[in-house]
Amino acid sequence: MRKTGILFRAGLKSNFGLALMCHRWFKEKKDRWILPIIAASIAGVLPILSGLVILIQRTYDVLQPMNQERVLLAWGVLAGQIAILIFGIYYVVSAFYFSRDLEMLIPLPVHPYEVMLSKFSVILANEYLTIAALVLPFLITFGVLSGGGTGYWINAVLVYAALPVIPLALVSALVVAMMRLVNFTRRKDFFIFVGSISLVALAFAIQFLPQVAGNENTTVADVAQFLSSRDSLLEKVGAFFPPCIWAAKAIAGGFSEEGLKNLALFLGTSVFFFLVLILAAERLFYKGAVGLSEAAVQNKPLSRRELSRRLSSGRRAFSAIFIREWRIMVRTPIFFLNGILIVILLPLFFIPMVQVASSPFGSSLRRAAAQEGSLIIILLVALFMVICSALNGASSSAFSREGAQFWISKAIPVAPRRQAAAKFLHSCLLGIVGIFAAAIVADYVLRLKATVLCTSAGLALAACAMMTAVGMIIDLARPLLDWTNPQKAIKQNLNVLLALCTDIGILTAIFFGVRALLRAEAAPAVVIGALYGVLIGLFALSYAALLRFAEKRYPEIEN
Question: Distance between CA 375 and CA 351 in Å, rounded?
Fold first, then answer.
């Protein structure tokens, strides 16, 4: 395992680059302007986390008299494991098979499982950070409210440490098997694309569809009988993924017999899936990795000669750049996940959440939504659409995704402002896909009036265009072009975090403005009109700034 540890440390240094950032900030004294932005971004996220904590606290107060409070732990654990199970597929494909260091690692005198476990460990370290915002608020808030003792907190730490192992090991084993089969085919990229989509669809169907189907024909008597049994809601939520039940009981039970038994079951299952992954890695990993470079050569971005040929053959420069962006996005699994798939999957997560709480909660939402022209519903639905469209990271990695190929963008005879405009349209269209998916889900859940839906969509579209331009400006200011793994260009790209926090700051400022109008008892039409005016004005300013900045910044970028 010594070799695995060496590979793991090298992978961590390459993945996070903390030493390099500290050197640039404190030794070379470069990019120090990022530090106050990071501090302000963290401060901007704190109100969201505090709101989540308040929501958990109020839900606990409702569930505790019915002896159903432990379902909160299951919700937190399940949210983290589902995120890993579904989105981890593309992270694993990208890190295992599309990182540039693979060609250097394969010839080394190490076993296949050692190479794969080093990459698995790096992904695991990333997932601890990914699920922290989803899981830790539930664990910490529940522990404080329930007065959890030493056993609670120790078990919580152990469960959190093992939390990503089961879904990530399961995903990794499935991906390794899929890539071995893909390597038998000639059209490798096509089958990687189809196989990954199939695995995501399977994971989503297993988790959500049975829960949605199980909520039909439920009477009041059934609900009363269901809630009279302790932990019945916990068993219901975790019926199709039992590890979340074991984790919840292990944490809540502490050092009791129930807690230790479920902890042993959860940790033992994690070890079993980990051993399955090692066996799959030793037998199949290299067999699936060797030969993929052939597909990569065929599917690299357009060369300078090819792009010039297409431009000279009559294709407009704008459309050529636009099509190139789509090809870069679709042909790289991690880019496809964060750019396209996430804006479709994210709205779907809300369907089971509303279905589970459909009796009082869903009815109240539908009654409020039935009031045509309800300002609060319009604003909430618009916010939902904005969230679903803004979390793809496409705009804030628009230039970073090109990586070492950015020299082509500098060399081709197309003005930087036109390239930036084509990239803007591409990123904005991805956001529109998210708005459209969110609109379908909102209409399905709330039965919205057409006027409410259209007004919300219009506000979301204006906000999406503005945030797209802002994200592109941030990425253009400091593009991350030197990456060995495409995952780093979007998931470990600080620009994505900076853009997200900037968007949160803008939305927070708009929220306080809307609240001021509501307190002044302004008419709904005035509030909506003011919102449209502010969003469109911000978009016009940010888009003009983007085009001007592109003309200035392109010649300065070196890669």
Answer: 23
Give Rg (Cα) of the chain: 25
CB 474 within 8 A of CB 492: no
Residue 394 domain boundaries: 315-559
The mean pLDDT of 209-228, rounded to a whole number, is: 50
* Residue indicated by tokens 């986390």: 49
**Three-state secondary structure call for residue 222:** helix
Give Cβ neighbours of residue 33 (< 8 Å, ≥ 6 apart): none
Q: Is the dihedral of CA 409, 96, 433, 374 positive or negative?
A: negative
Per-residue pLDDT at 351: 63
Q: Which residues contact 206 (CB under 8 A, 6 or more apart)?
A: 240, 241
Cα separation, 446 vs 368, in Å, equals 9
The verdict on 292 and 319 lying in the same domain is: no
Q: Residue 400 and residue 502: Cα distance in Å, rounded?
A: 18
Domain check: are 537 and 400 in the same one?
Answer: yes
Residue with tokens 């169907």: 205
Same structural domain for residues 115 and 238?
A: yes
Helix 524-553 with 416-446: angle, nearest 10 deg: 150
Question: Residue 193 contacts by C-beta under 8 Å, 6 or more apart in sequence?
Answer: 330, 333, 336
State the pLDDT at residue 359: 41
Task: Look at the chain and report how many structural domains it folds into.
Answer: 2
Residues 278, 352, single domain; the answer is no
The tokens for 511 are 């929220």
Instruction: Answer yes or no: do 266 and 320 share one domain.
Output: no
- Predicted confidence band at 171 (pLDDT cuts at 50, 70, 90)? confident
What local confidence, expressed as pLDDT, does residue 324 receive? 85
Q: Is there a single domain that holds both residue 433 and residue 548? A: yes
Question: Domain check: are 231 and 181 in the same one?
Answer: yes
From 236, 269, 299, the end of a domain falls on: 299
CA distance 21 to 3: 26
402: DSSP letter: G
Q: What is the pTM of this model?
A: 0.67
Rounded to whole angstroms, how far apart are CA atoms 258 and 162? 18
